[in-house]
Please model this.
Amino acid sequence: MSDPSSPANLREQALSLLASGEATSRADLVETLQVAPSTVSSVVRRLLEEGAILEEGVGRSTGGRRPRILRLRDAGGVLAVSELGARHARIGLCAPDGRLLATEEVAIEIAAGPVEVFDTVAQAFGRIRAATAPGQALLGIGMALPGPVEYPYGRLIGPARMPGWSGFDARADLRERFNVPVVVDNDAKTAAIGEYITRGRTTGDMIYVKAGTGIGGCLVSGGQIYRGGRGLSGDVTHVRVADSGERECSCGSRGCLETVASGAALARQLGERGLPVSTTRDVIAATVDAEPSVVTMVRHAGGLLGVALSGLVNFLNPDAVVIGGALSSLDVYVAAARSMLYERCLPSMTQSLSIEASIAGPDAALAGLGHLVRATADVRSS
Model:
């Protein structure tokens, strides 16, 4: 049996950790490999001399000198990633180390079904590759979907707002189209990964909420996504909340969080009041314009999100609650959720709790997909 502490094995382990994003500095490698700093320094020096890795920039300090960031040298080729929404898809192209090289948005209708939507996304992948990385090989595909995904199998399980998608094997379809390794996951989970990576892995246990047309959630604990038995965890959108007005939800139940706190719910409610609002983007624009009735309704929706999250915070005792998705751009929505969490949670739970908007922004899911795909495709530098 080979010695796991031998230089050759340590070299491969270090490359694997850097490729997966589990380590980005010498300190990370020391902690994960459980070897002496001098040993890690020797391995890193060898990899730098070989040209297998690059050293650039600095990370956040944890009390001492700021660490230098380590990353794999590009091996050639690209990763294509996409996050689907109700009416648009965000398309990205990543380097082999997961860095985003380019992004664009294309119009889709998720209700049109998987074949039409994937045709549109496939065309967008081809267009962005031709414009950004002509001649580069496609190394892997990543797709984030706005519904429950059985991970790692890539099948949708009962998505409430995606007619014609339930049971669809998205991973198999994409593999057949592109003949490369494919990762398919839920949009909130991929965004949580992207947020965690963007924060430099300095955040402890984190509840991430993606508040857009719908609402999804995810727990990151110990740097890992909590997925549950079938990979379907985090569907906070169907948590029942008080003051919901017992509106019927797309899942067939009543009183779900989605019916009062999502972008779709706000658009519907404002439309019912005669305002020219039909999409989440319309809601955001009307809030930015400081329309009083809109601001009041958005504040109420943020408060109801806080109510739904308060039970999770009391139960899980996270270090941070991060609100992402389109509605996280509205300060009034985030502030209302924060205020309700402080009101509803035990003081011991909020004493050191960070409650804030995403810093990864609209590319959070694409960044998370880049991390997942490079690990799955086993991308390595030559």
About this structure: The mean pLDDT is 88. Residues 320 and 354 are 4 Å apart (CA to CA). The first helix runs from residue 7 to 20. The longest strand covers residues 100-107.
